[in-house]
Amino acid sequence: MRSDIIFGQLPPASRLRMEELRTRYGVSVPTLREALSRLASEGLAVAEDQRGFAVAPISEANLRELAALRMLIELHALERSFQVGDVEWSSRVVAAHHKLSRIEQRMIAGDPCDRIEWKRYDSGFHHALIMGCGSAELLAVHGSVFDRYLRYQMVYLTFRGQIAADEHQALLEAALERDVARGKEVLVRHIEGGVEHALRAHAAQRA
Hints:
Number of strands: 3
CATH architecture of the largest domain: Up-down Bundle
Strand order of the largest sheet: 1-3-2
Number of helices: 9
Low-confidence stretches: none
Strand content: under 5%
Radius of gyration: 18 Å
Mean pLDDT: 93
Number of domains: 2
Order of helices and strands: HEHHEEHHHHHH
């Protein structure tokens, strides 16, 4: 259910009816209530007075807040990874970028691609960049914020094309060169650019 909320199969603000969920996931009502309470604590669902639960709604203000939180946490984790990441870490970064780059180049060329697969590779690359930070707690906090941020990306689902691909390449190069200042500069530009592009695209869709 968590994955279905993040990746948009359960749309924002939609009611989460117990019978439908029980049929969909094949679990008991007590198990569903426990899962929904946990999702509510993560900000992915909301409890409605006497009406059960619904998927958390979305808003521009919340997206900007999550983007700012993501940036704060990810910049710190990125710096730590660049400073202490080992050879295994850099190898994972290269491998994650290779997967992402291949699907991005196909999308730039106009090939129809699985957008969920693209976002999984995108998320995988950004996670790989910070996996060398050496702090499980920092990664857990980042993961919680990133998943809520990712939900917005799946709703708006826009691709900035070559600009985004170039920024990912620049992040890879900064990681391999252990260039903290360059990595931070590119990451800030990447997140801010992604937010503004998504909001413009969403506004155009609603016009």
